[in-house]
Design a protein that fits this description.
The chain is mainly α. 73% of the residues lie in helices and 6% in strands. It is built from 3 helices and 2 strands, in the order αααββ. The chain has a two-stranded antiparallel sheet with strand order 1-2.
Length: 105
């Protein structure tokens, strides 16, 4: 009986360690997401200027110009860019019509 209690105690310690590790993964994921948001905010400055100077643009053109910009080390695939721009649309920072993103008037 003592062994079972001891084994049960060890099992609960293992479960607690796993739960703690999961918490670490979550905070690591949050840290990565926070870092990525900061990186994408650099893109936002560029996108904002691009749309201000060139007018409405389709995502492919925005992505193409960002790839040139990204030679400085930060990359963004077109799906991630779409999610980012769609978030800006939901925040009413951008509008999307006719397949093009533009700044609201």
């Amino acid at each position: 009986n003592e062994r079972r209690l001891s084994g049960s105690n060890n099992q609960s310690q293992v479960m607690e360690a796993i739960e703690d590790a999961d918490g670490d993964d979550e905070s690591l994921t949050e840290t990565r997401e926070s870092q990525r948001e900061k990186e994408l905010s650099l893109f936002w400055q560029y996108i904002d200027n691009m749309l201000t100077n060139l007018g409405p643009q389709p995502i492919e053109r925005i992505h193409q110009r960002l790839k040139i910009f990204a030679m400085q080390g930060i990359e963004c695939d077109i799906n991630e860019l779409r999610q980012f721009l769609d978030k800006k649309v939901r925040q009413q920072i951008l509008t999307f019509a006719g397949g093009q993103y533009k700044l609201p008037k």
